[in-house]
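Section 5.1 Outputs to date
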Amino acid sequence: MLSSLRTTMSKGPAKVVTGVVMALLIGSFALWGIEDVFRGGGSSNVASVGNTEISSEAYMEAYRQRTAAITRQTGKGITPEIARAFGLDKQVLNALLADATLDNRTVKYGLGLDQQKTVQAVVNDPNFQVSRTPGQPPVFDPVAFRQLLQENGLSEQGFFNRQRQVYVRGQLDQAFAEGGPVPVALQQAVARYSQEKRNISYFVLPQSSVGDVGQPDQKALQSYYDENKGSFRTPELRGLTYLLVTPADLAKQANVTDADLKAAYDSRIASYSKPETRAIEQISFPTPAEAKAASDRIGSGQTTFDALVTERKLKPEDVDLGTLAKTQISDPKIADAAFSLKEGATSAPIQGALTNVILKVTKVEPANVAAFDSVKEEIRQALVAERSGEVLRKLRDEIDDERMGGTSLKDIGAKLKLPVASAAGIDRQGRDQAGKPVDVPLQAQVLPALFSTEQGSDPEAIDGREGGLMWFSLDNVVPSRDRSLDEAKSDVIAAWAADQRVQRLKDKADDLVKQMNGGKALEDVAKGLNLQVMPAWNLVRNGENQPVPPATVSVVFATPLKGFASSLAANGTDRIVLHVEDNVIPDVDLKAPETVAQAKHISQGVGEDLMSEYVRKVQADLGTTINQTAVDRVVGGGSGL
């Protein structure tokens, strides 16, 4: 699309328009000054710690990288409003301030790391390693590393300069990381707290036990409506027009003939050929002389290759190289020798580049080529995918160019003979004004984009992968509004009744708890209500898959032993009425894995707190300033830092 724009703007009248625009820009530079145009007339630094300044450019890049990372992880764009709502602007600035503070201290303490050690640290860094083979340890992958740099818009030199700062800061951070030893008394207290178990008896009080709550009178209804008016607003509705291109649509345009298939087979014959492979075993020797002596013994019949393996106390995995093609053997001498042997034969001694060996070939799998008919459909699918990609790229450029020229999606669809559909009004949950689901493709991706788009804008196409590629335009917006009581009356009555049932059931449960605290037994109360008492043993504070919901577990541990209480049941309507029977506090084994892990977690938390306090103290000593105007300029308005 950009290449098309450059082409368009360099021809005919558009070239004249471009010249006029550039002249106006140049004139503005002359009138107001270049610095003010780019800096907005103020300082370009967003903050400083002592004499260390954080530029707007550095903040903008860190902010961009943070939002881009979230977008990649979630698949959803991050608008400035969303970023500010979640405090991303503050988090990014605070991180830069902390880095600047540590940089100041590392210089003062004379900490450093030379370039060679920086490179080695990156190679050994788990964050830059990938696992190529299942079961094998991860290794540094240069290709993945360069791709990572490209995705983040970094040069190799720029990355290493930044990473060097990270590792140098790490030297200072390590001083606080461990946090020091954790007192035994604290370990025991935390372990007892987390490992305490409680046993309860309980019954479930159903919401149906409160009976019919009746109808509210007009005064109660009006009061409830006034207190909860925001709950009865109409949802914001948005209308859209969309054009969807699916893989099936593209495949129809990717015509593949039998001649195409045969030509592709012939040109890619190597892909359908299996090279000769051999199962190879190898015994290594320290010197050529030892290898020759062993070979002579095999040749004279004094021993065999397998007997030699046993004699040297080697395991099968010590001698098995696997089943390999010739190109998979890195040493040419060994490769040539292995592929000159017959099946079952043993080689003469071979002096390789790194070792001296004797080989044995246990199995030979000859080379073969897959027949055309056996891979015909595989080739067809590959060609369709390739040509579909070409069709899509061309189609995407055509549609984007048309949209840039102001053509509506409806007209684009007519011109390119593609189906265009629309939805008159849809809310954020994909429902229409009546609350019924609207059938719009790729809803999970298109709805967030639709409700973050402004009218008159040209939103990016939605990539639904196998679901297709979708272009859309925002046609209209029906704002959310308050409904009058008459409009929302049925919903208000239903909500009032639901709240009444919840409150009345809670009041009833509280009254039962009061009776049991007064001396009634849980079993007697349950029997009077014709309800069954059930046990729940060995409840722990942070356990999973327990017989009662987490909210009830919290109530259990907030209730004194032998006490009574109630909580909301898992269905959100019934209530659980319970009695805390007893508890068990196990003896603490300081060497148990969970206790050791807990102590490590506490120590790390202490270390993080120490580092935070250290950074705050240094910032207070050096002096920290924030240029709110510069920050707002980067993030797009009042961040409230």
